[in-house]
Known about the structure:
Chain A: It comes from Stackebrandtia albiflava. The complex is a heterodimer of chains A (497) and B (497). Chain A has 16 helices and eleven strands. Chain A is α/β, with parallel strands linked by helices and 497 residues long. The longest helix of chain A has 22 residues, at 377-398. Chain A is globular, with a radius of gyration of 21 Å. Chain B is an alpha+beta fold and 497 residues long. Chain B has helices spanning 9-15, 66-78, 185-203, 242-261, 307-315, 321-332, 336-344, 348-356, 361-379, 390-401, 407-418, 424-431, 439-452, 454-461, 468-478, 485-495, and strands spanning 17-27, 82-83, 90-93, 103-106, 113-122, 125-138, 142-146, 158-162, 169-175, 215-224, 234-239, 269-273, 280-285, 295-296.
Amino acid sequence: MIIHKTAAELAEAIAAGELTAEAVTRAFLDRIEAVDGRVHAFLHVDAEGALATARQVDADRAAGRALGPLAGVPVAVKDIVVTKGLPTTAASKILEGWIPPYDATIVARLKAAGMPILGKTNLDEFAMGSSTEYSAFGVTRNPWDLNRIPGGSGGGSAAAVAARMAPLAIGTDTGGSIRQPGAVTGTVGGKPTYGGTSRYGLIAFSSSLDTPGPVARTMLDAALLHEVIAGHDPRDSTSIPQPVPPVSAAARQGAEGDLTGVRLGMVREFGGDGAEPAVLAAYQAGVEALVKLGAEIVEVSCPHFEYALPAYYLIAPSECSSNLARFDSVRYGLRVGDDGSRSLEEVMSATREAGFGPEVKRRIILGTYALSSGYVDEYYGQAQKVRTLITRDFEAAFAKVDALISPTTPFAAFEFGARTSDPYQMYLADLYTIPSNLSGGPAVSVPVGLADGLPAGLQVMAPTMRDDVAYRVGAALESTQEPRLADQVPDVADKEL
Amino acid sequence: MTTVTSPSYADAVAKYEAVIGLETHVELGTRTKMFCGCTTEFGADPNTQVCPVCLGLPGALPVANEAAIEATIRIGLALNCRIAEWCRFARKNYFYPDMPKNFQTSQYDEPLCEDGWLDVDVDGETVRIEIERVHLEEDTGKSMHVGGATGRIQGATESLVDYNRAGIPLVEIVTKPVNGTGALAPEVARAYVTELREVIRSLGVSDVRMEQGSLRCDVNTSLNLPGQEWGTRTETKNVNSLRSVERAVRSEIIRQSGLLDAGERIVQETRHFHEDTGQTTPGRSKETATDYRYFPEPDLTPMSPDPEWVSRLREALPELPRDRRRRLQEAWGLSSLDMAAVLNAGAVDLIEATVAAGAKPEGARKWWMGELSRRANEAEMELGALGISPAQVAELQGLVDAGTLNDKLARQVIDGVLAGEGDPKAVADARGLAIVSDTGALTAAVDAAIAANPDVADKVRSGVHAAAGVLIGAVMKETRGQADAKTVRELILSRLS
Lengths: 497, 497
């Protein structure tokens, strides 16, 4: 059945002429039709556009033109990445109805690679959240248990892949928004090196942290998608002008199941305080599997990691308070109260009051405060110093080990509403993922097993521009699972709400 | 409330010391905008030179214009500044509809150029103006307020924004406070802006046209009693000509001294200069200062100009205007007053080119400052746009020097050149304009004049040589001005001796 094949298998079948890109795309569109009423992974489905791309790939193949490695394999795109002619909302009312006049660089690369774009996936508003509950357009449900969150902010992309509505998806990771949803939905999430994938056309939340990356069912699929979207982009000044690390080759090497000579570090400061025992147990099983593959596990200390969360919650809101200032009703998006009786300032204010949700407002206010005169050194400035120290912790660790490992997130998918009343409880979901965002290094989350019936993930963190190391370790771990979590299908259609 | 009367300017500067400071914004003449590829051309239809980047659309990212960085460094070098080895852009956050992102990408505590100076000449004295900083930023869009009587926002029914200007590279040049200039403060301000304009024009990095807004100036003024601390300053905007710079400082000195005399305090505020009245009126108060929440621009990488490149730029600087003026004044043997007249007429380049084409400085200056200036004034044209080239003026003067033309004939030749009849020699030939040097024909004309005026001839014979003028006039009339008056006079005297 088409929807159960991996992206690599689909690409091979299309290239060999065993399947048409159109048939593949139709299969996923049908699946969306069948199950997304329950899951709500998509905010917008573009059947027509996806099928047009698929037919073009089929025509290209028939004409003997060269096809890219993922030509004809459909992909879903997180709705914070702009798509020309397709609505892009960032799951916010303030952008409802806006149709971007341009494509993000990564979207242009998907199109150039012949990948049909199925639609736009749900997220926490402006990618601020860990449960997709802060979407202005309704929650996304975890295909493993429809009463639970799919993680966030990229819950839509992760749920779409987990529920077989898309073989691949694009996510964005600012503090864990690709990896944590991956962990709680049993999918693979890759956060590339910051600057390894272009941010041009990614609606900015926190410019110095935002990183687009792949969401997939397997490490190899994630690596193949990574290679389509990565690489230097002259439109993004922070894009790294270096060759893309050989991640698909690394994933294939890892799949051979030999980690002899690979040294992996467990971060002492990630001792598991506050983590769910079942999640820790799944993680421990994963560590043992890695040892069996020949990896050497050592403990390393990263003393400043414990300050990562507070530093993150100063830097990200500071940048967001500035990045989101442009949503002011003047040029695009929502406009409220423009009835001729109000001043421009009042209209701007009313629009932002009505257009932004509670978490976005919380962060704008926090960031505005952290940057304000008299406080900027104490908050934003201090946080930047912590960031430097965390980067040095990573450097010191990578002098001793090839990669660091940890649970991806302290807890498995929780029930709706469980953490919305206390923001800090929600923020803890990203405890283990945030350090890599602060340092800019690459990291992946790979399914490690089930914790009380819910997926758990193991995170591999690698040195800057050594994304290949993370893929190799992740793929090796994946190879030990029988059956792979990726092959277990949560039967969405049969679940009752 | 105390009655405030305006003292005379002389009384004001006799009592108070003025401290002035100037912030000048120069739009660079780069082909494209500061952070995108849009053209910078002036005068296009509104909102036709825009793209996702300069409109601040969600997801768009800036890329710094290298040519603008180079131009800024060259300005800094010409102003004797230290060029930063490493510096960053910063975001200046505030809401205003002509600013697409609601922050301006500017520089804060790390400008590209710092600590320079510019010498200006005022009343034969050299005044050194210290430069605090030269930094690079982007221009805003332009708001137009319609429906009101004044074109200002008060009373307007609608505001329109043109973003063509948004993102044009803008260099801000800030002086240190200038004190101790006494009654000359207004002239010093004007001389500084004049000299700065000349310097920037000589670098070829901007057309520095105040009337088009490519050079804009804000003037800070404060007064204090001798020996006391500097007073509260006001910032005067809308100063759109060199004359206005001088008038704005003068009017602010008078206004502030009136307030201080009456025991009032000066409000720190932005004031608006009115060309028609020569007065300033209050704009927005700065006492509740906007908190711009500056922080380093995370979308742009730091600038670190290569020191070798900077020294190459330094070596390649053109001769600066003041040095050039001094050199030319000496070479042309002009008094300071004559040189000032040449400068005011905008004739320096023209005279220099004319001399380069072979004319003697005195002759070149005579034509451009005399006959040609007169004609330009009559036609209300720039001297250089008159339609005669320096080479043609040099050729004309050559014909005079060779005795082929006298001044009167030369003016007729100019008529021909301006009428598009060709170069001076060709015009003279075609129009038959040349001094009559055929002595036979001249002698005949002289004899005829003597015969026609026997009484005058007798007077001359009796030694009243002054009477010869009548005869000369008759000969000139006969020869239609084409005789050399001196030769005619000699001929008459020899005939009548």
